[in-house]
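S1.2 Input.
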Amino acid sequence: MADAEGRVVAIVGATGAVGEVLLRVLEERRFPVAELRALASEKSVGSSVRFRGRDVRVELARPEAFDGADLVFFAATGALSKDLAPEVARRGGIAIDKSSTWRLDPEVPLVVPEINPGALEKQRGIVACPNCTTIGFVMALEPLRRAAGLRSVVVTTLQAVSGAGRPGIDDLEAELGAIGRGEPVPAPKTFSEQIAHNVLPLCDSFRDDGYSTEEMKLLFETRKILELPDLAVSMTCVRVPVPVGHSAALLVETARPLGVAEARRALEGFPGVRVVDEPARLRFPTPKDVAGRDEVLVGRLRKDLGSERLWLWEVSDNLRKGAATNAVQIAEEMIRRGLA
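S1.3 Output.
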């Protein structure tokens, strides 16, 4: 293991969209990296990634690559994390996984550090990072929960193509390029239909009850993070032709009535949340505003016309706070607690 001045850090999936952002976030936050190991599947072995001004060769993600590693970020497929995260734990390291593999395992903490950092005390070598949509969602809900409790939420998400990784970005760019040149739009490789100039009311595969697996992640992960096993969450997830930045429209029922002014104060006082809500100037959060930022932006605060519920609009960068930044914050919190 590395000494107290630095950690041996590995990234599985270092060449992917989230892996690239992880490298950037580690640099920006001056994370104590004594040694970086860039790992990936066979197709990326031999390429390199850039970290702190130097090229790091990409090696094969295999159990032996974790010998001596303190922290391993998984930004790859669920199959890789299922096979390899236990290998990290067996070797005395800590796996911080961005896939859905471990999120609902009762033995694995599912963590957003601003909300439930204490859950890290229960880790046994694997920590799960929530879905990119869930993170922005719970960051907007938690200040309201602390102020007045929660009873139910109705949410519609509008999710960027980068939520499907680099292939999603490539699909959008290829389709927009063809449209701009007046050429036939290529057949989609990632999504079920053309995403450019279109909206798809699904973000993953469907279950027999008509809900998508993405929607069920939002329900079950939210309940686990907030420790509200009976919280009613009604959800629809939609894919939109935006490169980066997930958005969500929330209708929130609190346990006691919560006025707009009190809700605004609760949101403004919560770490990692910024209120952008100026109707007179038509200033509200957009994906363009949040891209490249770590804050969750909230606006359109208003009382529902037919009830005591509150409406609000939330946007977050799904590659940063929705993935890489949250994972790095988990690692930072574990170091602060003497767990890594």
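S1.4 Remarks. The chain has a mean pLDDT of 96.
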